[in-house]
Amino acid sequence: MADVLSQGEIDALLSALSTGEMDVEELIKEDEAKRITNYDFKRALRFSKDQVRSLSRIHENFARLLTTVFSAQLRTFVQIHVTSVDQLPYEEFIRSIPSTTLLSIFDAYPLEGRFLIEVNPNIGYAMVDRILGGRGTGMNKVETLTEIESRILSQLFNHMLDSFQQAWTSIVDLQPVMEDLEVNPQFVQLQSPNETVVVISLSTTINETSGMINVCLPYVVLEELLPKLSAHYWMQSPNKERDENEVKDIRRSVRQAMIDVETILGTSEMTVSELKDLQIGDVLELNQSIHTPLMTKVGGKPKYSVQPGRKKQRIAVQIIEEIKEDADDE
Questions:
Q1: Which domain holds residue 310?
Q2: Are residues 143 and 225 in the same domain?
């Protein structure tokens, strides 16, 4: 809501204008000067804010999928997340990346054109080192790739494209195919120098090695998808098949999660002196009656009332009832 001048402020303003302390023409010029903003035609902003937010959401999902894939394949700590989404000329993107780096160029059928994923050599070599049985040590230097390194990196990039395809499923059914693996950005003519591209930067950590993964998407390739990147498209009725698949994936992940389950037999109090004198074979008296149900905790929280027993040759408990959480604890 705009500020409203009081009667005293209005009188003071009229007085200043009448006495010449304030010039109306200068106020008009200042107001016009504030309305003028510089526009760089070489840095044309061709993606709207809604579309940039949609691209950010898609690649946040891509980062989560990639974290899962690399964690399983490298069997070490992997963390990937989106740090920025920028639109800039293709020439400026090429100048911003190292002179020698790892570049994966791939077709994105059914779209007409190619995309580019740039992986910092520090990250690339850390993955190669881990695949070959090392600790995941990175190298920030690339001159030429050996045949073995090229083969390993190509396989890793193909796994990356699988996650990329899955992340874009809600927008388009991509079938990305890797075309080439290059180390010199100057040899990669993806677009004309002044063509706008959107660059999604992913901060990546593998074990103790950190670096960036940059996804370069040309505007001309994404142009036919722009209506689907609007907020209106995202607010439309959900795709039932997609939602069912997402629910299945979540259920599968939850079922595979490990969680601590413990049953409390009872507690007992004793002095430090009595604790020091304990020996093998001593019997501790617990404050739990044999007729009172035991409590089982799941993830550290009380979950079930149980009674002890045996199943075949193993000690077991039988669930009697579920312990309901209080509304205050939820």
A1: 261-276+283-329
A2: yes
